[in-house]
Amino acid sequence: MSERIFNFSAGPAVLPEPVLEQARDELVNYQGSGMSVMEMSHRSKEFTAIIEKAEAGLRKHMGIPAEYAVLFLQGGASFQFSMIPMNLYFQGNPVDVINTGEWTKKAMAEIDKVAACRIAASTEHENFCRIPTPDEIHLGENASYVHICSNNTIHGSQWRDFPNTGEIPLVADMSSDILSREIDVSRFGLIFAGAQKNIGPSGVTIVIMQPELAERTPKTLPTMLQYRTHIKTKSRYNTPPTFGVYMIGLVMDWLEAEGGVSAMEQRNEAQAKILYDVIDGTDFYTCPVAEKDRSRMNVVIRIQNGDESLEQTFVQEATAAGLSSLKGHRSTGGIRASIYNAQTFEAVNALADFMKDFEAKNG
Ligand code: PMP
Questions:
Q1: Which of 8, 73, 78, 338 to mutate to test the pocket of ligand 1 (most atoms within 8 A of CB)?
Q2: Strand ranges (DSSP E) for 128-228?
Q3: 237-241, 304-308, 321-325: which range is least confident on average?
Q4: Torsional sign, CA 14, 15, 21, 24
Q5: What is the Å distance from ligand 1's center to 78 Cα?
Q6: Ligand 1 centroid to 175 CA: how many Å?
Q7: Fold exhibited by the domain 17-257
Q8: Confidence band (pLDDT; 50, 70, 90) for 197?
Q9: Ranges in the chain annotated CATH 3.40.640.10
Q10: Which of 103, 159, 177, 327 is catalytic?
Q11: Which CATH superfamily is domain 260-362 in?
Q12: Pocket lining: 175 vs ligand 1, CB cutoff 6 Å
């Protein structure tokens, strides 16, 4: 696999090489079944074992309480922006959103279509360069739920201490940091994530929820849109994204072999530190995010405080040097290095070296 490059894509993102190799080896004939996983009935005993294994892995690694439901859905994290308010909104009880970036803005736009949405705190006036402090967050007493994004993929900020919402269910978009650090799942009413960063390939959306929240849903809602449908049928009301679910199982095995989420957390901290140390060691590079809120998953880098032409040269030369997908999100520009669980120290060190060389030539 020597032809593989260093991939810093924000998602779909780098997957562990042993996982890809195992999927390749099993692609045509899955464990002697004579079929590919892609060719199997989603109701077969083989696939039942595959989906149960993926779920068991998620439950184990995240420490998900037994009573919580774990669902494998489709439509991406974006679909959850709509599905959650359709299911969890009580008429007259607004949804409180803590606005920390483009992904909470997108969520608010969808919540607005089906519910009343209230901003409980926002750092938009500061270009989302930080997470609001606890005293800046004003939750309504009667909120249907509180929506946050645990890691802001685009702006490169990450919650350290989640807000205390008391009896009000806390809903978190963990698309870009699920399984990257230890969290207490019991503090959340619902967690959702697109799989394509830390969990597996795109096409699967994970929802982890307190099943009683699904009982809020009006039965008049279309069947596919109700969480209770998917809870009752264990994500097999219709055909789930079978290959993606299989891949998640392989990623869970890999996570186990690597020492689980606590080992990932240490590795992610260490990899992020390598890049932030380069940034902080010079005036040439800056990170626009307040130090205490910097993401361990998406490191946002500016050159000379936003010299777009130099940033473009950086990305071009990095690409030529085998460091791929470092361009910042189209809405913010700049440079962004995504260093999810499967990212290697080799890649991160190569980037750190490239940054130092680039500064020596252009600084
Ligand atoms: N939320 C966050 C935090 C994300 O990073 C993304 C995708 N980058 C999304 C939501 C949207 O995910 P999807 O493309 O699966 O709808």
A1: 78
A2: 145-149, 151-152, 157-158, 170-173, 190-194, 205-209
A3: 304-308
A4: negative
A5: 6
A6: 6
A7: Aspartate Aminotransferase; domain 2 (3.40.640)
A8: very high
A9: 17-257
A10: 103
A11: Aspartate Aminotransferase, domain 1 (3.90.1150.10)
A12: yes
